[in-house]
Amino acid sequence: MNKKNQAEIRAKIQLAAKNLEGRLPESKKHPSGRNPYAHIPKVIISVMGKSYKDLDDDQLEEVLCIVEYCDRNPF
Fold this sequence. Notes:
mainly alpha
């Protein structure tokens, strides 16, 4: 992924994570609360198979859809 697309994704992740603060369900693994800034990149890795930085530029829209989904549906 080129630097411009990486920056766009990172900005979207930051906005979505800010919106998710305090909205992620509680977890026994995270007694002091879950980190939405780490949650979204982990979701991207789990869906796409690798970090958004390692994806092709033509997958930009797919990654942005994942970020948007995470923002609308905290899990």
